[in-house]
Amino acid sequence: LRRQRVEVSVELRKAKKDEQILKRRNISIHVKEEKPSLGRDRAEEVIVQLSLEQILKAVNGEDTQLQLLATQATRKLLSRHKDPPINQIIELGIIPRMVEFLGRADNVPLQFEAAWALTNIASGTSEHTRAVVEGGAIPAFISLLSSPHLHISEQSVWALGNIAGDGPLYRDALISRDVIPPLLALVSPATPVGFLRNIAWTLSNLCRNKNPCPPLHAVQKILPVLIILLKHEDKDIVSDSCWAVSYLTDGSNDRIQIVVETGILGRLVELMDSPDLNVMTPALRAVGNVVTGTDQQTQEAIDAGLLAVLPRLLKHLKPVIQKEAAWTLSNVAAGPPQQIQQIITCGLLPPLVELLDKGDFKAQKEAVWVVANFTTGGTVDQVVELVRSGVLKPLLNLLLAKDSKTILIILDTISNLFLAAEKLGETEKLCLLVEELDGLEKIEDLQNHENDMVYRAALNIIEKYFSGEENTDLEPQTGQDGLYDFSVEKQDFNF
Amino acid sequence: MELSDANLQTLTEYLKKTLDPDPAIRRPAEKFLESVEGSQNYPLLLLTLLEKSQENVIKVCASVTFKNYIKRNWRIVEDEPNKICESDRIAIKANIVPLMLSSPEQIQKQLSDAISIIGREDFPQKWPDLLTEMVNRFQSGDFHVINGVLRTAHSLFKRYRHEFKSNELWTEIKLVLDAFALPLTNLFKATIELCSTHANDASALKVLFSSLILIAKLFYSLNFQDLPEFFEDNMETWMTNFHSLLTLDNKLLQTDDEEEAGLLELLKSQICDNAALYAQKYDEEFQPYLPRFVTAIWNLLVTTGQEVKYDLLVSNAIQFLASVCERPHYKHLFEDQNTLTSICEKVIVPNMEFRAADEEAFEDNSEEYIRRDLEGSDIDTRRRAACDLVRGLCKFFEGPVTGIFSGYVNSMLQEYAKNPSVNWKHKDAAIYLVTSLASKAQTQKHGITQANELVNLTEFFVNHIQPDLKSATVNEFPVLKADGIKYIMIFRNQVPKEQLLVSIPLLISHLQAESIVVHTYAAHALERLFTMRGTNNATLITAAEMAPFVEVLLTNLFKALTLPGSSENEYIMKAIMRSFSLLQESIIPYIPSVITQLTQKLLAVSKNPSKPHFNHYMFESICLSIRITCKANPEAVGSFEEALFLVFTEILQNDVQEFIPYVFQVMSLLLEMHKNEIPSSYMALFPHLLQPVLWERTGNIPPLVRLLQAYLERGASTIASAAADKIPGLLGVFQKLIASKANDHQGFYLLNSIIEHMPPESVDQYRKQIFILLFQRLQNSKTTKFIKSFLVFINLYCIRYGALALQEIFDSIQPKMFGMVLEKIIIPEIQKVSGQVEKKICAVGITKILTECPPMMDTEYTKLWIPLLQALIGLFELPEDDTIPDEEHFIDIEDTPGYQTAFSQLAFAGKKEHDPVGQMVNNPRIHLAQSLHKLSTACPGRVLSMLSTSLNAEALQYLQGYLQAASVSLL
After folding, report:
1. Are A80 and A27 in contact (CB under 8 A)?
2. Rounded to whole angstroms, how far apart are CA atoms B584 and B543?
3. What is the mean pLDDT of each successive set of 10 residues along chain A, which is 495 residues long?
4. What are the Importin N-terminal domain coordinates in residue numbering (chain B) (predicted)?
5. DSSP class of residue B165?
6. How far apart are CA B175 and CA B124, in angstroms?
7. Residue A421's closest chain B neighbor by CA?
8. In angstroms, rounded to a whole number, what is the distance separating the alpha carbons of residues A29 and B270?
9. Is there a contact between A474 and B735 if contact means CB atoms under 8 Å apart?
10. Cβ A495–B159 below 8 Å, yes or no?
């Protein structure tokens, strides 16, 4: 069976480091570099001294010069490297006022400082983002997308990205306020690379999150632009676009279908092979998601060259890549025999065996799934080929793994192997092989395993293949002479 | 039951009685307690007693009774009565933790178990405050209390080590982590601090270290499923402290006991486990810490003594290093020449030394010593661990490691040479080092299969091994002799043959050594050498090369069985068997004496069979004696019967269960040696062989079937005439076997022999019944194995009784039965039949159905004619299956499946393959062509028209080939 990405909604681990960032604070100072002016520098130094009370007063006052200085001071506080005082700023209650400043087309510096400050507030926790949204920032930022000033529309893109990244609720709030058309309109051959990066990232947040997935009409609008961005030469843009596609494919088969139909699989497979980890990771995830779909969708990924790239990824130095690649392969192995055949033809068995033997534990677990699926759906010949490739030894070794589920899957796989051996009349041979590789000893040991299902699976194999069972209804009675009575009652037969 | 003094008193009385050794008093008391345990307040009465009783025994007894009561009754099973009322449940949960914590240790353990049983059902939902209650006690500062909490936590959380990942489980773990991880971490830090403030207080340290062990165990459980965020964030704290605990030593914690591991060792062992868990599962996150642990663990190894109490710790620690040094990304930790040298010098060499404990085992417990040294049941010995480390290091550093060790080997050999009688242990270590360095892969069957090319094994053999074995005194330096013999044994595939030939007489003379280990190794080495293969799969060492040694070999082998401690030595007996098998007819002159000695041995061990392997090889040797002798002189069978039957009768009469299957096999072999009618001595036994009690033991089934087959082959007509009343019993055996999925093929063996050999009229009245029985099994529980046997049987029947008879009997059971079997079983399944003879039987049988069964031509069965022919051609054109080789010498005993402990097939009692159609049909394809030709002459035109309209092109082409080969054509 094909396995979707998430099995357990509870996580014990830290949030994944390899995931794309959800919200970002603007702590760069590139604006200053753009417009180096003495007055400005001096002004900042002075303003840094402003207390929160002074900020409150100035922001709420009518003096536009002071408003600008106070907003700048706020932005500065929120942009400092360590512990930005987001909570205090929110508690000042100045957000609605800042939102108001966003509309001050007459005062571009004020618009910009407010946009920046709000961006950084929205980059915090959900609570923080909510404060910005409830201050009415969504429509204001959306209209600023069309600002004639590039740095203001760029800052708005960023702010909207933070809001979208909060979760499906705000994401859909943005979509229903028609954020997409003005956002996409910003993409043109003339758009600077830095700006495009922000757009790609914000688009990815608009594609992100499930329960529910983003609305179909939105996806359909975004996809053509993503396809263009995927072909960009900047790797950050490509990376975020890949992430976006990976979110779009992380769902039901009809969602996958929309992406497959764009014909982008070839490019994604190409990107899986990128030397840049930030590109390779989301590309692999995207294609990995595609092969959780139907046989046909999986076939399209195979036709796009997926299996030619996987061997390298299975051997990748990064454990997460090994793991993700093995997971992807496990879903191909869950397909019909002709897809399994392609796994063999493309030379994936040797790297699979190697991974099973020496890979990182997370990857070994996925590799076990590959073997399990392979033996469930493969033909007898294919299973023979698998055994010939040396899979049995590392597989049996993993019966010592510190993970009950993995052990259980291996036991199920062993049962599958026995089913194939029965068809070939080679049960005995497999019994010997399992014994030779110290497997029998390990399976016998597992009959003492604390986990009930593991214990029963082990017992089942032992009973089925390493001992016998009876058909009591045919058993003869003992007759008067003390010997067995030969007799049977006739029934109707129908084979 | 009220919570009254009277009830407490009554309960006390009954509890006391449950401790009474007299069952007449004890049993009724137990019954009474069981009868009242459903009453309200019963558990509370027990809790009161275990807390307040005046007598300690009653306290303990109440606590055990309470725990068992919880174990039996706490879980609420659907549709079964809930035996504990809700108010009691609440009261128990409210009181049990403080009660457990205030109880003395003996009672605390019982209550702690009870808590974990309750926790398994109720925690966390129905016992939400349990965790807080426990965590609060951490602050008590009372380590008696704290240890109670930790122990309980351990029993609650240890299931995280084996349960499957699930939302429910992970939600619980998350909850536990949220409440428990931080307090546990703080407790860990505080405990460590207390350890340094109480560094001089032995009794405080003991309590504190018990806590640390429990904390380390809890760490293992909480980190098992996945790496929790909290522990990843706090890895620094945990790992730094674990690391320093590994390096900690305190005189006050050292124990005098040499055997039993102390608290310090237990803690360090658990820390090694924790590090191994992280290294296996969370390698990525653990990487920064790993080098420190590697260093600490090898320092630990360097400073740990040779006492047995450290063995587990040391072998765990070495295994940790061995598993790490094999991984490519940790290679750099080991590659420095100084590091390698110090690991070799300080970790590997010292742990390879022959210790006093080894010497003791060598002398006084040789069986255990041999098992560890020879059979690899040494998994947690130091030597094995050191050996694994050598192998691990050699993966990347074979050259440098070999170089370093060569230096050591040389200096140890020099030490030995200076004064052998004092320094012999140095040579032992040198040999062990060479062995572990040189061996890269090993199997029981072939010894070393892959060796380190940098070690000159032959040179070492000639210079350092052979001289020891050549010394005239076989009893000198027994350990070195054993080492030398083992060296020959495991490097037999690396040392050239001429050197092996030189060694053979040396090994033979060491069969006389007094040391059990030495003469056992000598026997084992000979046995292994005799199984080696040269070119053409012939034995490497030939009978001709052994000719000069036959007498001394046999003499010494049988003499070795008389040495103290070796009267049932399986290695010697196996060597006897293997020698017979190699030497073949050259043993004939010695057979009279050999068979006498073997029968005496058999008689002696049948009193109390205790060594299954010894017994097995003994029977193999008997079989070989019979085969080899009777092959040259068939008449000799009588003298074997004379020598053996007396013992056999005794074995059968005394029902020596272990030996009966062997006796049947030897009897089969003997009976098959007879060329004429069955001797009357065998017939007298026949009715006894049908006794159900024999057939109830699975181990008897294959040899008994084999024996009955021999009876049928040699004496079917005698049975029909003199024992006709036993035929139902015989068929009853068949029925018994056919009822079992495991044994049905045995039932078919028997049935095939009955059909083939019994006169038809003697089984006439049973035939229909036989088929009904088979159909019933086919209908209710068919397996591939059953179908294969069934197909062979019905075709054999067809050959013996004719195709028409087969059709008639099927259709007399149920109309159109024949067609159904053809369509549903024969045609689709015939390709599954394997084995040359089996396929041939099926081919001939089907040919008969096609060509000698009129209903196939003129009833509705005609539509099956072409499909059946097609299936037959398919059967012909399948690739041929494995044939069974005739040269039984090469059947290795190890090849027989070892898990069927109940039945041990004797390789040398093996039955020759029997081909019932051999005389009748030589080439079944030609036979088909000829039969079709005959049919087409009888009804011209019909066959050809059927073929041309419906047979597929490929099959038709094959068929034309058969017709051509037979030089016939169809009309």
Report:
1. yes
2. 8
3. 69 75 73 40 50 91 93 91 90 95 94 95 94 96 95 95 95 96 95 95 94 93 96 95 95 94 96 94 95 95 96 93 95 95 96 93 95 95 95 92 93 94 82 79 84 90 69 66 75 74
4. 29-102
5. P
6. 8
7. B784
8. 52
9. yes
10. no
Place of tokens 């954020």: A179
In what helix (H) or strand (E) does residue B134 lie, and over which residues does it extend? helix B130-137
Q: How far apart are CA B845 and CA B847, in angstroms?
A: 5
pLDDT, residue B893, reads: 37
Q: Do A468 and B814 touch (CB under 8 A)?
A: no
The rounded distance, in Å, linking the Cα atoms of B775 and B760 is 21
Residue position matching structure tokens 């009830």: B7
Coil, strand or helix at B897: coil
Q: How confident is the model at residue B843 (pLDDT cuts 50, 70, 90)?
A: very high
Q: Map residue A470 onto helix, strand or coil.
A: strand
Query: Residue A361's closest chain B neighbor by CA?
Result: B281
Q: Is B902:A468 a contact under the CB 8 Å cutoff?
A: no
- CA B345 to each of CA B340, B348, B350: distance values in angstroms, whole numbers, following the listed order: 8, 6, 7
CB atoms B283 and A360 under 8 Å: yes
Collect all residues of chain B within an 8 Å Cβ-Cβ radius of residue A484.
Answer: 690, 692, 695, 729, 732-733, 735-736
Q: Alpha-carbon distance A16 to A13, whole Å?
A: 8
A319-A323-A324-A327 Cα dihedral, nearest 10 degrees:
170
Complete domains list, chain A, with CATH: 305-467 (1.25.10.10)
Residue of B727, B740, B812, B878 to mutate when probing chain A, most A C-beta within 10 A: B740
Pinpoint the alpha helices (H) of B822-890: 827-829, 836-851, 855-858, 865-877
Distance of alpha carbon B778 from alpha carbon A493, whole angstroms: 9
Q: What is the C-alpha separation between A493 and B790, in angstroms, rounded?
A: 16
Q: Which residues of A touch B691 (CB under 8 A)?
A: 482-483
DSSP B547: G
Is the Cβ–Cβ distance between A166 and A205 less than 8 Å?
A: no
Please give the Cα distance from B565 to B572 (Å, whole number): 12
**What tokens were used for A220?**
């359909």
Distance CA(B852)–CA(B846), nearest Å, equals 10
Q: DSSP secondary-structure letter at B164?
A: P
Sign of CA dihedral B213, B215, B216, B220: positive
Q: Scan for tokens 């040398």, then name that residue.
A: B908
Residue closest to A387 by CA, chosen among A419, A342, A339, A346: A419
Q: Does B204 touch chain A (CB under 8 A)?
A: no
A211 conformational bin, left if phi > 0, alpha if psi -120 to 50, beta if neither:
left
CB B687 within 8 A of CB B722: no
- Nearest 5°: CA angle at B855, between B849 and B856? 50
CB of B156 within 8 Å of a chain A CB? The answer is no
Query: Which residues are bridge partners to B447 per DSSP?
Result: B443
CA distance B481 to B483: 5
Q: How far apart are CA B345 and CA B165, in angstroms?
A: 44
Query: Are A484 and B733 in contact (CB < 8 Å)?
Result: yes
* 8 A C-beta contact, residue A471 and residue B786: no
Burial environment of residue B410 by CB neighbours within 10 A (0 to 12, 13 to 18, 19 or more): exposed
pLDDT averaged over every residue in chain B: 88
CB distance A404–B227 less than 8 Å? no
Note the Cα B265 to chain centre separation in Å: 32
B807 or B405, which is more confident:
B807
- Of A339-348, B112-121, B368-377, B491-500, give the range with the top mean pLDDT: A339-348
The one-letter amino acid code at A232 reads H
CA distance B369 to chain A (A): 21
